[in-house]
Structures are given as structure tokens and as C-alpha cells.
């Protein structure tokens, strides 16, 4: 009887997710269509915070300086205490193409209560001045197609957006990346269904930090970077902040790509655990509920399908099938085999373990560890 109840419960959850959860699984919110050019191309200030990014910064800066944007576009790199020559590599990239549009700012240490990245972003925004209509925030490990700025601004101008964010195509080359990265994107879409983010009447808000275009005046009205200074998941906090000011948009893209190698299983687990407990607001009750929910939604269906009988097995098989089907659009986007859909329970178990480890790190005083900074202690 208990197995039947678990199977029915899991099946009902998957039916809801597929039919009524903003079609998150369809991966249909993309930047494929570019709106008509605006009458006037407004000025854009690009801000890139960087800390020990010498291996990737040259390509990132080169792609930004190569934008075919018709208006004025200038770039500020904020060197956040790098010790590997990040600023020098960036300067060399600008010199290689003869560009004088790069300004490098040496960041001061973050104030108490600020994360290092957001402190660097704030200093870059200040250095950009008040003249640009748009701020384009991007990461040091993202390369952009030449028409990315044009696409971002055209969409923002056409739709009156205060925030236009593209979720960069993540690197998916190593064995661990191929197994885990598409699921990371799938889970992100489940947490923040893009169609709901893009609907002004919906309370759901989010953004992807690798590529965010902001209306500068709306950002200032919202309180600027200081309003989210302690946010460990800063992109989604930014999305929530800006949706109070007007329409926002979040979409998948191939125009922007992450070039940072995520490495193996351990490295990807560390990436997830850095912020997973912050997503749960550092609550042991939410942690327990999340792990129980993941067991019901992801682990119960294959276990019932393989080891139960009768109605419980049937419910498990159908739920597992719905799960595998829902993963297909994201797998296609990342050019992965459809067979990975059947492996989603095992992948989810990995993410559940990383979520618990995130809480464990926080309890040990090492939450949010990133390049020598233990940032989650700000919220303890």
C-alpha cells in the first residue's frame, strides 16, 4: 500500500511539472529572433569583475571588444585582487586588436557584509559613470558572439525591458560535464521557469549572471548593487530586484558561451555546493524537505519500476518515462543523447548529495567558499 501511495504521489508531481509548471522543460525561451533595430542605439557600459581569471580573460575581453554594436560601447574590467596577471592578460587582449575602449580598475577589498564579486561589480558600475543607458554585466569566463550586444539592446528597447538576461551555453566536454551540466540547466529552469520569469504578472523572477543587460536608471531606482550586496546567488537576487521595476526577460542562448572548464565530478560538486544551501535560505527544515522531495520525485520512480509490482510498478514506470521525456529538450540543446533522460535519477542523486554537502560546509564555517573567500558566513 505504501509503495502505491509513493508511486501515485510521484506520478502526480510529474504530471503537474509537465502540464502546469510554466512549461519549464520545453526550453522554448530563447534569443533566436532578433527584434528590429531601434531608431537610436543607446550607450552601453560593460562591467566585468575578475579574480584570478588569467586563463580565460583574454578570450572574454577580446569577444567584448569585437562587438559590432552600432552605438557607443565601453568596457570596464574590475581586477578583484588577482595574483595571476589577470589585468595584464586583459590589457594584452585589447592591445592585440588596437582597442582603446578598455578601462581596468583595481578593486578595493569588499566592505563588511558584501560578497567579493558584488563589491567588484559596484566599483565597475561607479567607474562606468551615469551617462550609459544600459549596463551589461558579464563574467570573465564568458565569450560572446559579435552580435550579442546588438541583440540584447534591440530586445530591451523593443520590449521596454529593465533587465534582459541570457543563460550562457555552459561548457560540456569532459565526461563529468556531459553527464551533469545539462541537468544543471534543467534544474535551473525548474526552479525559475523562464516563461514565468518573462511574464510581468508572475512573481517568479530570475536571471543568469553570465550575461545581464540592465537599464541603468531602473537599477539605480532599485538601490543598485548595494540592494543585493550580501546575495550569494546574486543573479537571481538581481532578477527579483529588477522585476519590481518593470519587465524582465531570461532566455537560453548560443550567442554567449562559458569557456571555463568545470572539470570532474569533484569540481562540479564543489560548484553546486557553493550556493545550494543559500538557495534554501540556510534552513535545515528546507534542506530536509528538499532532500525528501528529490527522493520522491527522482529516486522513487526507477526504484518502483524495477522492484515493485502491480499499480506501484506501473506508476513508477510512467513517472520515470515522464521524467526522461521532460529532459529531452535540454538534452537536445546540449547535443546529448536522449538516453541520458533515463539516467536523470542518478544525476539527481548526485545533486542531492552536493546540496547536503553545501549545508555541511556551511555548518563547518566554510560555506560559499570561492577563490579563498568564505562568503556564506555573511548570512549565518
Textual characterization of the structure:
- The chain has 380 residues and is an alpha/beta fold.
- The protein contains 14 helices and 10 strands.
- The radius of gyration is 21 Å and the shape is globular.
- The two termini are 42 Å apart.
Q: What is the topology?
A:
Blueprint lengths: L1 H19 L23 E7 L3 H12 L7 E7 L6 H11 L5 E5 L9 H13 L5 E5 L3 E3 L3 H12 L3 E7 L5 H17 L2 H4 L13 E5 H6 L12 H10 L4 E11 L6 H9 L2 H4 L4 H24 L2 H24 L10 H20 L5 E2 L2 E2 L6
Parallel strand pairs: 1-2, 1-4, 2-3, 6-8
Antiparallel strand pairs: 4-7, 5-8, 6-7, 9-10
Helix pairs in contact: 1-12, 1-13, 2-3, 6-13, 10-14, 12-13, 12-14
Tag the structure with descriptive keywords.
single chain, 380 residues, alpha/beta, Spore Coat Polysaccharide Biosynthesis Protein SpsA, Chain A, 2 domains, 8-stranded mixed sheet, two-stranded antiparallel ribbon, 10 strands
Amino acid at each position: 500500500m505504501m509503495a502505491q501511495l509513493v508511486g501515485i504521489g510521484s506520478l502526480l508531481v510529474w504530471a503537474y511539472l509537465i502540464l502546469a509548471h510554466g512549461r519549464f522543460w520545453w526550453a522554448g525561451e530563447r534569443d533566436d529572433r532578433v527584434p528590429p533595430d531601434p531608431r537610436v542605439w543607446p550607450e552601453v557600459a560593460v562591467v566585468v569583475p575578475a579574480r584570478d581569471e588569467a586563463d580565460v580573460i583574454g578570450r572574454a575581453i577580446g569577444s567584448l571588444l569585437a562587438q559590432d554594436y552600432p552605438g557607443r560601447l565601453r568596457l570596464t574590467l574590475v581586477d578583484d585582487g588577482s595574483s595571476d596577471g589577470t589585468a595584464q592578460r586583459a590589457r594584452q587582449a585589447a592591445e592585440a586588436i588596437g582597442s582603446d575602449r578598455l578601462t581596468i580598475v583595481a578593486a578595493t577589498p569588499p566592505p563588511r557584509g558584501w560578497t567579493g564579486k558584488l563589491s567588484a561589480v559596484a566599483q565597475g558600475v561607479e567607474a562606468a559613470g551615469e551617462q550609459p543607458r544600459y549596463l551589461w554585466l558579464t563574467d570573465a569566463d564568458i565569450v560572446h558572439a559579435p552580435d550579442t550586444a546588438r541583440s540584447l539592446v534591440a530586445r530591451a528597447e523593443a520590449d521596454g525591458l529593465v533587465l534582459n538576461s541570457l543563460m550562457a551555453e555552459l561548457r560540456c566536454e569532459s565526461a563529468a560535464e556531459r553527464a551533469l551540466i545539462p541537468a544543471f540547466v534543467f534544474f535551473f529552469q525548474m526552479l525559475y521557469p523562464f516563461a514565468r520569469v518573462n511574464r510581468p504578472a508572475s512573481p517568479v523572477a530570475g536571471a543568469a549572471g553570465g550575461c545581464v543587460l540592465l537599464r541603468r536608471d531602473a537599477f539605480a531606482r532599485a538601490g543598485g548593487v548595494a540592494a543585493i550586496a550580501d546575495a550569494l546567488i546574486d543573479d537571481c537576487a538581481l532578477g527579483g530586484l529588477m522585476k519590481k521595476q518593470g519587465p524582465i526577460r531570461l532566455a537560453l542562448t548560443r550567442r554567449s558561451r562559458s569557456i571555463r572548464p568545470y572539470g570532474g565530478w569533484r569540481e562540479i560538486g564543489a560548484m553546486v555546493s557553493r550556493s545550494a544551501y543559500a538557495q534554501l535560505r540556510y534552513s535545515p527544515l528546507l534542506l530536509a524537505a528538499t532532500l525528501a522531495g528529490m527522493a520522491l520525485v527522482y529516486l522513487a520512480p526507477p526504484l518502483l519500476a524495477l522492484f515493485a509490482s502491480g499499480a506501484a510498478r506501473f506508476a513508477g514506470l510512467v513517472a520515470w518515462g515522464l521524467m526522461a521525456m521532460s529532459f529531452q529538450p535540454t538534452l537536445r540543446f546540449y547535443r546529448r543523447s536522449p538516453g541520458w533522460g533515463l539516467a536523470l535519477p542518478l544525476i539527481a542523486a548526485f545533486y542531492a548529495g552536493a546540496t547536503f554537502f553545501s549545508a555541511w560546509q556551511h555548518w563547518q564555517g566554510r560555506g560559499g567558499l570561492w577563490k579563498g573567500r568564505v562568503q556564506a558566513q555573511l548570512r549565518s
